[in-house]
Amino acid sequence: MPPTLSAVTIGLVSTSDRASSGVYADEGIPALKQWLQAAVKNPVHFTEALVADEQPAIEAALRRMADTDGCDLIFTTGGTGPAPRDITPEATLAVIDKEMPGFGEQMRRISLHYVPTAVLSRQTAGIRGRCLIVNLPGRPQAIAETLGGVRTQNGSVEVEGLFAAIPYCVELIGGVYIETDAAVCKAFRPKQK
């Protein structure tokens, strides 16, 4: 029987010069919140930051969320392509203690089912203290695809989404037990011996 579901604190960081300056509304944070509220059964507390594509600003937001806000998990959205201002992976690598390259590999694997330009993405993930930080794409549809995986026409999972591995990873680094709605994304945990 799973433990009582504790509240989980999730940081959401959207990196965009134009959205942070008010040129257009940010779509990344609302898309992340919508997907996570459907997928996670725990009570969720969100902390958010909308920042320009400036490495010091991104690093500061990640440090604050991990160290001060006590986030179990942080998702960034945007800034992971090859353009000169896309520096979210560099900011992430600068603040983590351990890189988790499998997350980036799986994101590209999922995205290649939809677009050939997925090879241009530089998403990564890593651990800072007891917090997992994951870089996601910027488009709302790509966020949902990356987290939830590739499904066939009948709804079965063809390629596992990132979130299937995230609850167990958070547990392994000392975070809370996260339970998911299996209809959205089933969390994988090894069978107990």
From TrEMBL:
Pfam families (UniProt xref): MoCF_biosynth
Species for this entry: Neisseria musculi
Enzyme Commission number(s) from the entry: 2.7.7.75
Gene3D superfamilies named among the record's database cross-references: MoaB/Mog-like domain
Family: Belongs to the MoaB/Mog family.
Residues covered by the MoaB/Mog domain: 11-157
Single GO term (MF): ATP binding
This protein's pathway: Cofactor biosynthesis; molybdopterin biosynthesis
GO-annotated biological processes: Mo-molybdopterin cofactor biosynthetic process
Identification of the protein by name: Molybdopterin adenylyltransferase
Catalytic activities: molybdopterin + ATP + H(+) = adenylyl-molybdopterin + diphosphate
Domain of life (superkingdom): Bacteria
Function (record text): Catalyzes the adenylation of molybdopterin as part of the biosynthesis of the molybdenum-cofactor.
SMART domains: MoCF_biosynth
InterPro entries: MoaB/Mog-like_dom_sf (IPR036425), MoaB/Mog_dom (IPR001453), MPT_Adenylyltrnsfr/MoaC-Rel (IPR051920)
Keywords: ATP-binding, Molybdenum cofactor biosynthesis, Nucleotide-binding, Transferase
Signal peptide: none
